[in-house]
Design brief:
Length: 473
């Protein structure tokens, strides 16, 4: 279960020790130890009141969402800061059997169509446009309910010409308007999960129009509703602040989850014994500073663990924590700014391999072992004159270990190596690991903030050629 699911009690199944210790408990115990008498009694009353308030907020949020799923209408709007877990939550909800069961209760025996779409500034215009949204929703809806095709595309359906010309945007928009009318009169129930509305191309005026269009989809009908997620962007927050809709801010609900996550990272670290008596204070400070942003907390804890590995004391760790920027962009700047100047060219090449325009959701060069030959690109004849040979399991493991170390050293954890296939399926480890971004905001940051500088520092590095050469190895 994802720790980002604030509605599911099952998602709170954490280690027993963490279940027994909340952030509020630690704060309470720390403060109570400094107080006596009447002040202590007063603080206990304040603590109980605040804890009850937080419990009520999580409970009411959970109940609000479940009620909306099972019997609600219109829009459920999830707002959250970058890196707070919106996309993870939306993916979880759109695939959750419990959510689907609730929607089936809402459909009350009638057909149900459940579709997800993600806006993302990925370099593909369709992923950021209204046309892309319309096409995706229409395709998935027709795939799940083919009986709608003759109603939505009557001319194409009746045509004997199998080579029908591609639909242009005006035609797609007309079909979608037709779909909304058909949906309103249909017994079929439609629920759309649309993530990342703030990534929709255009300015605030376009965002206002999009939000009003979405609101209009659910007006006057009982069988179409939307679950939407955005950053706290004014056009969406204000438009969806409608009495008919429901709204939550995810970063207001994840404080204790971030505490549990951060504490677990410390406890699983090989150097935990060095800070076992003081790490909880660090966790509390991380939680307070994170302001509900999971990604920020993860990067900061990783930075602290690196310093602990170098035997920094508690005073230095707290000083380091206080100097870390609170914004993600500024934090990325600091992380990449810590790379040794001598390592900068290799780091630049590593990132440039992952972020060309044709690279959408993941780096096109995904197989992790391919990155182990990055240094060999200095040889103009590589890989064309390299001898063909089979690699032993030991050699494969050594190369994967090298890639893992390179990612840690040259990307400072902004690129990760993860297992995607089991060794049993291939009989070896050659294709089992992939390189991916820590978070999609990392790729956005590199492309929008760093890529020009990286290319300027590596003028002779031909990225497309390098990718093709590494793919052939």
């Amino acid at each position: 279960m994802s720790p980002l699911d604030p509605w599911s009690a099952e998602a709170q199944k954490l280690p027993e020790r963490l279940m027994a210790v909340s952030l509020d408990d630690l704060l309470r115990d720390h403060i109570f130890s400094q107080m006596q008498g009447g002040e202590l009694k007063m603080l206990r009353r304040l603590y109980r009141k605040e804890k009850k308030k937080q419990e009520d907020l999580r409970r009411s949020t959970r109940e609000s969402f479940l009620t909306w799923i099972e019997s609600g209408r219109h829009i459920f709007h999830i707002s959250g800061k970058a890196g707070s877990g919106k996309s993870t939550l939306m993916k979880f909800l759109s695939r959750s059997p419990r959510v689907k069961k609730g929607l089936e209760a809402w459909a009350d025996g009638q057909p149900l169509v459940l579709v997800q779409f993600v806006f993302w500034n990925s370099g593909d215009e369709r992923q950021m446009s209204l046309e892309g949204l319309y096409r995706s929703l229409l395709f998935e809806t027709c795939r799940q309910m083919p009986s709608l095709i003759p109603l939505l595309f009557p001319e194409a359906w009746e045509s004997s010409n199998l080579g029908v010309a591609p639909f242009h945007f005006d035609a797609i928009r007309t079909v979608f308007d037709r779909f909304i009318k058909e949906a309103s009169a249909s017994s079929t129930h439609f629920c759309f999960f649309i993530d990342g509305l703030d990534e929709f191309q255009g300015d605030e005026v376009d965002h206002w129009r999009l939000s009003q269009d979405l609101q209009s989809w659910t007006a006057g009908t009982k069988n179409v509703k939307l679950c939407l997620s955005t950053r706290p962007h004014i056009p969406f927050v204000q438009t969806f602040a409608n009495p008919l809709n429901s709204q939550i801010s995810i970063h207001d609900l994840t404080r204790e989850d971030i505490f549990n996550f951060s504490a677990t990272m410390f406890e699983k670290d090989p150097n935990f014994q060095r800070i076992k008596d003081t790490y909880e204070d660090l966790v509390i400070e991380v939680v307070d500073a994170s302001d509900g942003v999971f990604l920020w907390a993860r990067l900061v804890v990783r930075s602290l663990l690196r310093s602990i590995g170098y035997r920094d004391n508690e005073k230095n760790l707290k000083k380091q924590l206080s100097s870390i920027p609170r914004g993600l962009t500024e934090l990325f700047d600091q992380i990449l700014g810590s790379i040794d100047p001598d390592d900068q060219p290799f780091s630049d090449k590593l990132f440039l391999l992952t972020t060309p325009d044709f690279c959408l959701w993941q780096p096109i060069l995904r197989n992790a072992i391919s990155y182990s030959w990055l240094e060999d690109l200095e040889d103009a004849d590589f890989p064309y004159k390299s001898p063909m040979k089979a690699y032993t399991e030991v050699e494969i493991d050594e190369r994967l270990e090298r890639v893992s170390c390179d990612l840690d050293r040259f990307s400072r954890g902004l690129l990760l190596m993860s297992r995607r296939r089991s060794r049993d399926s291939d009989g070896h480890e050659y294709f089992t690991h992939e390189v991916q971004f820590l978070h999609r905001s990392v790729r956005e940051y590199i492309v929008n903030t760093r890529e020009v500088q990286m290319r300027h520092r590596t003028p002779n590095f031909d990225v497309p050629s390098a990718i093709i050469r590494l793919l052939q190895r």
